[in-house]
Design a protein that fits this description.
Elements (H helix, E strand, L loop, with lengths): L6 E3 L2 E3 L5 E5 L6 E6 L3 H20 L2 H17 L1 H12 L3 H18 L7 E9 L8 E11 L2 E5 L7 H12 L3 E5 L6 H13 L6 E3 L5 H9 L5 E5 L2 H14 L2 E5 L5 E4 L5 H13 L11 E5 H17 L18 H17 L2 E4 L15 E4 L6 H4 L6 E7 L2 H9 L6 E5 L3 H10 L4 E4 L17 E2 L5 H6 L1 E9 L1
Parallel strand pairs: 7-8, 7-10, 8-9, 10-11, 12-13, 12-17, 13-16, 15-16, 17-18
Antiparallel strand pairs: 1-2, 3-4, 5-6, 6-20, 11-19, 14-15
Helix pairs in contact: 1-7, 2-4, 2-6, 3-4, 4-5, 9-10
């Protein structure tokens, strides 16, 4: 795969002003392909193209917009094997993950938003007494969802299919146009998505894709005066910088940022279920997911057993070539990120944590691998317990009673997804409601794909997924008339 990728601007494929750079397979350290480096002028041209296309696209009947999304879903599904192979090479995800959780979820999201939902709803009539504003009367009202306008979608490297699809599909369904700025590590998959949308009949300018390693690419896509909203998935630090720019121009924001999820495991929990859920999730995609339960809070009665079982579970996870069918843990995205994850494991040792499993570099001589690490005897003031590592590392902390467990779980800057395991369902739900997190899994790490997704505190602003994404990518207009 050595082709030199073009930019997608205004319905045309354009050579990048800044040339190309190599995209590296994190499993082999070999080149996957050549990604385009857009100039600031090309980014602004993409934003201008989206602005020009917004009027006609927003007036296109919702059924016609939905038909484009349905055709795109069909094209992605038909090319699943090809697209998954590229996603695996760009990200280091296992073949199963690339097919099901990356490309498969992307197709499902396009299908989901190909379903037309009502964009208006009635509000109960109001009876007004006579006064300075006029005679007595009845006022009817209607709330109408209107598109926001041009949306810049800045997407994350951990899932170059599902993450952009989760932004593009609901934004287009609502009548917005988009400029997509993919993560620099794995942008080629997003260009394949643009090809699928082009083949599905999306009009010129409705979808634009511009990439680059320079921070100026993202900055131009956010700051352009043609942009009305920014949808960002990534680190809290970058999200804060984007929010500052959006605040100056009062641009709408949807921010899905970092996480340091707590898994609160009580003495009466099904320990096997808790260990399997935690072990599967914190090692999934090499721990590069914001929803991972990377702080495990274990009640003292089961603390030792949980540490022992979680260490054993982690040790059984095969680390290696993501193309092999029995591989569970592939590489992290880059050498720099591997070094960062390893530095946190060493920091944990210095802080007094005990590494009871993993943390070493596995045998493959090439590739950016880290064996899933379990750090026991942690306290909540340790950096490994407070900062997002974004790798296959979990910190285990003990607690005595429910009050302490809740207090520890909430003692964090983040609040994306937490988890509770308890055999007492009433207690599990009681604790879930006390956790300051956008989502809580009760005895499960599963996700309901219609449930709202987003975070409290520094984990983000706003909610998407399901119908909530249609709200996120729309403004609500009130229309009032005399009855």
């Amino acid at each position: 795969m050595t082709a030199r990728q073009a930019l997608f601007v205004g319905g045309s494929w354009a050579e990048p002003d800044g040339g190309h750079y190599e995209v590296i397979d994190p499993a082999t350290e070999e080149a996957v392909g050549w990604a385009p480096e857009a100039s600031r002028d090309q980014v602004l041209a993409a934003c201008a193209a989206a602005r020009e296309a917004f009027g006609p696209w927003s007036r296109t009947p919702p059924e016609e917009r939905a038909a484009v999304l349905a055709r795109a879903a069909g094209i992605i599904t038909a090319r699943l094997k090809e697209y998954a192979s590229l996603a695996r090479a760009e990200t280091g995800a296992t073949t199963g993950t690339a097919r099901a959780m990356q490309v498969g979820v992307a197709a499902a999201r396009f299908r989901r938003y190909a379903r037309v939902e009502p964009a208006e709803w009635a509000i109960p009539p109001q009876i007004n007494e006579a006064g300075p504003m006029g005679r007595a009367g009845v006022l009817g009202a209607l709330a109408v969802r209107q598109p926001v306008g041009v949306v810049t979608c800045v997407t994350s490297y951990n899932n170059p299919w599902a993450n952009p699809a989760g932004k593009i599909a609901p934004a287009l369904a609502m009548g917005n146009t988009v400029v997509v700025k993919p993560a620099p590590q794995d942008p080629l998959s997003v260009y394949r998505m643009a090809e699928a949308l082009e083949a599905a009949g999306v009009p010129p300018g409705v979808v634009n894709v511009v990439s680059g390693r320079s921070t100026g690419v993202g900055e131009a896509a956010v700051a352009s005066p043609d942009v009305d909203m920014v949808s960002f998935t990534g680190s809290t630090a970058v999200g804060q910088r984007i929010a500052e720019v959006c605040g100056r121009d009062m641009k709408r924001q949807l921010m899905e940022l970092g996480g340091k999820g707590a898994a609160v495991v009580f003495d009466d929990a099904d320990l096997g279920s808790a260990v399997a859920g935690i072990g599967t999730t914190f090692s999934f995609y090499s721990g590069q997911i914001c929803t991972a339960p990377t702080r495990v809070l274990a009640q003292r009665g089961i603390y030792d057993r949980l540490v022992e079982q979680l260490a054993a579970y982690s040790g059984r996870l095969k680390v290696g070539d993501p193309r092999e069918p029995d591989t569970v843990v592939g590489p992290v995205i880059s050498a720099a990120h591997r070094d960062r994850v390893e530095s946190y494991i060493e920091l944990g040792r210095k802080e007094g944590a005990v590494v009871v499993a993993g943390g070493e570099r596995p045998d493959p001589p090439r590739g950016f691998y880290v064996a899933p690490a379990v750090l026991a005897d942690c306290t909540n003031d340790m950096r490994v317990a407070r900062e997002e590592i974004f790798g296959p590392v979990v910190a285990v902390l003990p607690f005595d009673d429910e009050e302490e467990g809740v207090a520890l779980a909430n003692d964090t800057d983040y609040g994306l997804i937490d988890y509770v395991w308890s055999g007492n369902v009433a207690r599990a739900f009681r604790v879930a409601r006390r956790l300051r997190a956008g989502g809580v899994g009760v005895n499960t790490v599963g996700r309901n794909m219609e449930a709202p997704f987003g975070g409290f505190k520094r984990s983000g602003v706003g909610r998407d997924v399901g119908s909530y994404a249609l709200h996120a990518y729309s403004e609500v207009q009130a229309i009032v008339w005399p009855g």
